[in-house]
Amino acid sequence: QVQLVESGGGLVQAGGSLRLSCSASGPIFSTYAMGWFRQAPGKEREFVADISWSGGYTFYASSVKGRFTISRDNAKNTVYLQMNSLKPEDTAVYYCARHTSRFGAISTNVEAYEYWGQGTQVTVSS
Predict the structure, then answer these.
(1) What pLDDT digit, counting tens, does each position of 40-63 carry?
(2) pLDDT in tens, 101-125
(3) CA–CA gap between residue 79 and residue 52 (Å, rounded)
(4) Can you state the percent helix, strand and coil of the chain, rounding each to 5?
(5) Pairing mode, strands 10-13 and 120-125
(6) Among residues 117, 71, 126, 68, which one has the least CA distance to residue 94?
(7) Residues in Cβ contact with 51 at an 8 Å cutoff, skipping those fewer than 6 apart
(8) Is a pLDDT exceeding 80 seen at residue 26?
(9) What is the β-pairing status of strands 18-25 and 32-39?
(10) Burial grade of 40 (CB within 10 A; 0-12, 13-18, 19 or more)
(11) Mean of the pLDDT values across residues 14-28?
């Protein structure tokens, strides 16, 4: 049974920072790529960032590159998203997701991820 639980969301002023965490249960977390996605009201879920199973490769959406950093601690079964210089357009529910395949390549595609957390709300005020 795989469960993903996000935490760390909240209300922050523009220019501020938040650190999201995603704690994963289930076996062999360290062999799966992990991703962060977000969904704003009335919009489709969109890719934010992902990280390879080893942590050696990361990829970011152009809208967050240089401001957000994804990382993971395989000993703690946790993936993080450090968000700096937040903007009002970053307001959304943020979801973490586990890749479908062990040792799978990182992907920006929603369909490449099998398990999803319940989401955590991030609100950035102007």
Answers:
(1) 999 999 999 999 999 999 999 999
(2) 888 888 999 999 999 999 999 999 9
(3) 11
(4) 5, 55, 40
(5) parallel
(6) 117
(7) 33, 34, 35, 57, 58, 70, 71, 72, 79, 106
(8) no
(9) unpaired
(10) middle
(11) 93
